[in-house]
Amino acid sequence: MQEVRVLASGLRFPEGPVYLKDGSVALVEVAGGTVIIVRPDGSRQTLADLGGGPNGIAVGPDGHFYICNSGGFVWNDEPGRLRPAIGTPHHYTGGRIDRLNPTTGEWSILFDRCGDNLLRGPNDLVFDDQGGFYFTDLGKTRPRDRDHGGLYYASYDGSFIREIAYPLLTPNGVGLSPDQRVVYVAETETARLWAFDLDAPGEVRKHGYPSPHGGRLVCGLPGYQRFDSLAVEANGNICVATLVTGCITVISPAGRVVRVFETGEAGTTNICFGGEGNRTAFMTLSGTGRLVSADWPEAGLRLAYEA
User: What does DSSP assign to residue 13?
Assistant: First the structure.
């Protein structure tokens, strides 16, 4: 197992890390409903209590934080480990996209529906350089059935939102290729990585049968593994947080597993890049409530906007 450095512990299922220019990391506590900042010295600041289940963060062109809020989960709170369980919490009122001013802590709901369809469990998001963002809606799982999930494209100013791929099975992580002509989506339960080819921002060139939603299958892992969120390297490889086996699986655009970074944590949920040359990986080990970092052999892709 490669060496990781623990930056913060005791967090309530941390997810969605975002590296900030001052060396801090913004993230959410899904089980705590909060957005927090972890400073380089290890100190923490709570920016907002959003409630529900904030799941992923991205910085928009206005410097605000845009947050996928899943509405919350039922939790299995085991000794030393926390994980989502099947079911819908009693406080659940739906999913949404929140917008947070990181300076004032003020926040508002940007979207809670797409047309007539309510958002169920938004999970992860990524901005392009046009001010639009792609996000996944994983849906909710109940004891006897589950929602279909989808991929959406929306504007940071709230002027539009549209569904661009549906149905997906538990779509989770989402990321853009370096040339922003491909959107990658990782499905949790299938451990499949899908690519959606773009003709223009938010316009998918859909593939026909046997694709269930117009995507192109990049890779699927054998055995009992599950995908969570992802980040992209500057060279175009896709780094997917892999549950159960506890690693980051690095996959080429052609679908080849090129590298595996073991974390030692079955609840490895997310990764982002920062630091000098974008060569430091920041990862959330959610089950044990930790934010960790590690040196990375390749530079991470710089995101469209930074804070």
Answer: S
Given phi > 0 = left and psi -120 to 50 = alpha, else beta, which region is 256?
beta
* pLDDT tens by residue, 167-184: 999 999 999 999 999 999
Residue whose tokens read 């309510």: 118
What is the pTM (predicted TM-score) of this model? 0.97
Smallest CA-to-CA distance from 306 within 64, 54, 122 is with 64
Contact 282, 293 (CB under 8 A): yes
Q: Kindly tell me the burial class for residue 144, based on how many C-beta atoms sit within 10 Å of its own C-beta (0-12, 13-18, 19 or more).
A: exposed
Hey, which residues does 133 pair with through a beta bridge? 127, 154
Calpha distance 230→270 (Å, rounded): 6
Q: Going by DSSP bridges, is the β-strand pair 122-127/132-137 parallel, antiparallel, or unpaired?
A: antiparallel
Domains of the chain, each with CATH number or no CATH: 5-295 (2.120.10.30)
DSSP character string of 254-288: TS-EEEEEE-S-TTEEEEEEESGGG-EEEEEEGGG
Which of 130, 138, 126 lies closest to 58, judged by CA?
126
Mean of the per-residue pLDDT values for the chain? 97
User: Residue 1 — pLDDT band, cuts 50, 70, 90?
Assistant: low
Q: How far is CA 299 from the centre of its chain?
A: 19
What would the two tokens of residue 177 be? Answer: 């290729």
DSSP β-bridge partners for residue 150? 137
Read off the tokens for 216: 């192109």
